Amino acid sequence: MSDERFRDSKLADSHLHESKDRDSQAGDPQERDSQFSDSPFYDSFDEVAPGGTFLDSKEVVLNMGPQHPSTHGVLQVVLKLDGERVNGLECIVGYLHRGIEKIAENRTWAQFGPFVDRLDYTAAVSNSLGYCLGVEKLLAAEVPKRGQYLRVILTELCRLASHQVWLGTHVLDIGAVTPLFYAFRDREMILNVFEKYCGARLTTHAFRIGGCRWDAYPDMAREVLHICDDLGPKIDEYRDLITGNRIWLQRTKGVGYISPEDCIAYAITGPVLRGSGISWDVRKAQPYSSYEDFDFDIPLGKNGDTFDRYLVRLEEMRQSIRIIRQAVEGLPEGPVIAKLPKVLKPPAGEVYHSIEAPKGELGYFMVSDGSQQPYRVRVRPPSFINLQALEKMAVGSLVADVVAIIGTLDIVLGEVDR
Amino acid sequence: MTVGEMLRRFFLVDLLKGMWVTFRHQNPADLVTEQYPLQRPEISDRFRGQPRLMKDENGKVLCTACGACALACPEKLIKVGSVRDPETKKKVLTEFDFDLGRCMFCGLCEEACPSDAIMLSPDYELALYTREGMELQRPQLENGIERKVYEK
Amino acid sequence: MIDYIVGYLHSGVTPGEAGNLFWETIYVLLVFLGISIGVIFMNWFERKVMAHMQVRIGPMRVGPHGLLQPIADALKLIIKEDLMPSGADKIVFWFAPVCVVMTAFCGFIVVPFGRTHAITDMNIGVLFMLGVSSLGVLGVIMAGWASNSQYPLMGSLRSGAQMVSYEVAMCMSVVSAVMMTSLVTGTGTMSMIGIVQAQEQQHMWFAFSFFPVGLTALGVFAIAMVAETNRAPFDLPEAESELVAGFLTEYSGFRWSLFFLAEYAGMMAVSAIAATLWLGGWLRPFPHLLGGAAWDTAFSLVPGLGFLLLGALCLFYTARMPKLRSMRGNLIGLAAFGAFLALLGAFMLLPAVRIRVQDIFWFTIKVGFFMYLYIWYRTTFPRYRFDQLMKIGWKFLLPISIGVVVLTAVIGVRQELLALVFSSWGGGR
To answer: Are residues C150 and C250 in the same domain?
Structure first.
């Protein structure tokens, strides 16, 4: 049975023909194969089975390309499918690389502050907090207590906002279209507070090195407490609408399992780690910015599947509300920013400081050479490191689950690519 | 499974509860859409919008052409031109170029200015049809950009 | 000639039964017009209702409160470029949307809007409707095949498999309803008009007879019809955020709008079956419990009052609109629409019109109720994965529907014994 007959078939695997052309153009086959280790780009059907035809090829390479409604940004996921089952998966990142770490080498320490917001753009305040704390560690500067409490309030509000985005988009990928709008309606309240505090809703540039630029605006305490009161019942609404829903349970229970040992092996942090049962939260383990003054719990999951991670994040939202209430009620008087020289020249040295961002452990490794500009700023992006788990979780599951798993990892491409 | 749970599963109680949540939200008091441009949003005082050069009560520009804002800007998009006044030996502002297309609205120029001359106003309607229009000169920064006001 | 035309009006049967070609044509045109208006209205209604459930307002710009939005959408689709994939099978590609639309519309031949308000009344009416909607599956598969692309083909096969699986459960529950038509007369009927007349005779909508068996049959049918029409929560084959984009991918412009038309027409057709079989078709609520001339008149005022209310609502919204020069067109348009609806309502209050319009109105309300349920489901529920979907169809709905059939048969035969039990429950005959 010669394969010539099937080359012109209308239904023939056109991608196989494409690959044939690409073969002749791509040059070194070794170079091509290294990207896809057991690539199904066969040179002839005989490789599939002796005397084989296109009907014998079992694996299909499907490209969930950079432009896709469900990949939360420009993420390219190449899937090797056998029917509906995922046999292999490869992520190709870099479509949003903007060279932020390189930019840092040409700006002063204070000028780099606005750039840091653009990493995880759903939670800009967190990024700002991590950066400022790292530089303050280099400078050995002490932020006044009121500044620290203000920072905690804004960071926890930012955690709430980020989890709202996650909730809305994750549920939307699985098919329920309404919670997205409810989540964004709740997020509006938080963004209004940000706007009144620092003047911007998304790229907030909220903190400065040494503390906060502005003190709380006149009605801030009242508005923040109003948000806390409002959000509690709304999180309960999600329980009625989503958590108990049998369709949701069927779509998320048992999907995207990762064991605790694998989590530690991959250096996964954040709600993904806590969903698998390991109790590690940087706010409790290595407290920063007065988190040790507050009383809150760390929610843990039991099975490391999508449903547990969902419950962990919902509970984290409730704990954030708890922290905010305590911070607002206990807000001390005093200055909000430390006295630092206008021209910052940290002594030469290196520092690594990490915080618990909504997505995981966000770390900044900064090297100073004594001048006004950093020598190197390296960001430990939680989304990038959590993305390693995608292959582990998705291989063996169905195609429709890949979308759910990408959603449950809560990645933001701004952070993955920087 | 208890009898109650079986009945709840059979009669789709969890689905009905979800349906009640969405039904309840149809209350007109809950709708949150603002119909722009008929309803404009409330902007806070600290909003970082279009940069403006401020003048004092007599109409004299506050800017002393010190160049602190140009030094503070992360994107180096401010160009301050000045001449030195021979009598007072102080700098007088001649030109002020601001490339709005590259601006991040971070507010560092506003913070750096010692005389509160440059401020980011709460003006957010900045869309233009040409890229050249984004390079603001001194008159536009003092008086604001000419805009058509849309009603519909 | 005039006698031919006028002669039909005094018969008490549908044009098909009377063999009157002229009135059949008129009715066909009216039904076609009605479905088209229904689809247009559903487009607007779905967007508005979904928006309100999602705490936002829907389209507001194109025409007052978005009323001209469907027309703008239709215009846009018509003037779009008509693409055909390069290797596509041209004839099949052209025919697939035609097939789907034809089968969706053909089902409406037997749908009764009233005792005489149907195009014809076949004595196998229900079977005809189910059969014709099954032919729609062919169109779906043809669409996937003709696209010459792997993923639409896979999507169309999945969609076809889903539709076929849920048809079995649908047909089983239809069987149980048809069985109930034989309770009083001793002979059952599959004609749609006959089923409604049987409900009238038994003084009970089939949804409430043999409580809760009738309701379960309706429930099974309600779930199966959602899966049959590929709507949420069973819309994986045509979902936007899934990988396999579904059989509609390669269709753009007018061809796509034909599929969309067929989807809404299919939804209306299965809602019509549900309304006829279980909710009493064109009968008004409580025809015997609240019987008598006074109640009849009261209920017959409802259509007119309903339209008057809608007209008043439009005028109320006109008063609330901002009085800007740029919104003059919207103001005048909405006021005119409100006036038109109010006039229509006043017209429907005239006695001569009241009697004739009643049946159509109640039938439309019941179909509209099911359409609202469709929109409500779409807003609330996430999507089922395909294997879970098939599992529900075969392992959950089919056994329940077979059980309902068996129970209906047993109870029907033994109804004399159980009449005692039922009379103590108050559900009596």
So the answer is: yes
Domain that holds residue C316: 306-343
Question: Looking at CA atoms only, how far is residue B14 from chain A in angstroms?
Answer: 5
Residues in chain B within 8 Å Cβ distance of C60: 35
**pLDDT at position C380 over 60:** yes
Q: What are the domain boundaries of chain A?
A: 4-92, 100-417
- Please provide the average confidence, as pLDDT, over all residues in chain C: 85
The yes-or-no verdict on residue A5 having pLDDT over 60 is no
Q: Looking at CA atoms only, how far is residue C54 from chain B in angstroms? A: 7
A111 touches chain B (CB under 8 A): yes
Which long-range contacts (C-beta less than 8 Å, at least 24 apart) are formed by A238-242? Answer: A238/A167, A238/A179, A238/A182, A238/A314, A239/A314, A240/B17, A240/B18, A240/B20, A240/B21, A241/A176, A241/A178, A241/A179, A241/B17, A241/B18, A241/B21, A241/B22, A241/C380, A242/A171, A242/A176, A242/A179, A242/B18, A242/C382
Nearest CA-CA distance, residue C47 and chain B, Å: 13
Contact call for C243 and A64, based on CB within 8 A: yes
- Interface contact C346, partner A, CB < 8 A: no
Predicted model pTM: 0.86
The verdict on C336 and C416 lying in the same domain is no
**C380 and A CB contact within 8 Å:** yes
Q: Do B14 and A245 touch (CB under 8 A)?
A: yes
The whole-chain average pLDDT of chain A stands at 84
Chain A residues at the C interface, defined by Cβ less than 8 Å, are 10-11, 13, 60, 62, 64, 69-70, 79, 84, 171-178, 180-182, 185, 241-242, 245, 247-248, 250-251, 398-403
Task: Give yes or no for a contact between A115 and B105, defined as CB atoms under 8 angstroms apart.
Answer: no
Alpha carbon distance C50, C379 (integer Å): 6
Of all residues in chain B, what percent carry a pLDDT higher than 90?
3
Query: What's the pLDDT score for residue B93?
Result: 84
Q: Which chain C residue is nearest to residue B151, measuring alpha carbons?
A: C326
Residue in C47, C223, C380 to test binding to B, most B beta-carbons within 10 Å: C380
Within an 8 Å CB–CB cutoff, is residue B31 touching chain A? no
Concatenating the DSSP letter of every residue in C138-175 gives HHHHHHHHHTT-HHHHHHHHHHHHHHHHHHHHHHHHHH
Question: Mean pLDDT across the stretch A126-155?
Answer: 93
pLDDT single digits (tens) A136-147: 999 998 999 999
Task: Tell me: ipTM over 0.90.
Answer: no
Looking at beta carbons, which residues of chain C come within 8 Å of B19? 376-377, 380
- For the segment C157-177, the average pLDDT, to the nearest whole number, is 90
**All structural domains of chain B with their residue ranges:** 51-143
B51-143 has CATH 3.30.70.3270 classification = yes
Which amino acid would we find at residue A375? Y
Per-residue model confidence as pLDDT tens digits over B38-48: 788 888 888 99
CB contact under 8 A, B33 and C56: yes
Check C52 against B19: CB less than 8 A apart.
no
The C residues from 268 to 297 touching A (CB cutoff 8 Å) are none
Return the higher-pLDDT residue of A326 and C13. Answer: A326
Enter the CATH code of domain A100-417.
Answer: 1.10.645.10
* Runs of H (alpha helix) within C232-290: 253-278
pLDDT at position C358 over 90: no
| A107, A113, A244 member nearest B14 (Cβ) | A244
pLDDT in tens, C52-104: 999 898 898 888 888 899 999 999 998 988 888 887 778 888 899 999 999 99
Put simply, the answer to whether A250 touches C385 (Cβ < 8 Å) is yes
Q: What are phi and psi of C17, to 5 degrees?
A: -65, -35
CB pairs under 8 A between A and B: 67
pLDDT per position as a tens digit, A180-226:
999 999 999 999 999 999 988 999 888 999 889 888 888 899 999 99
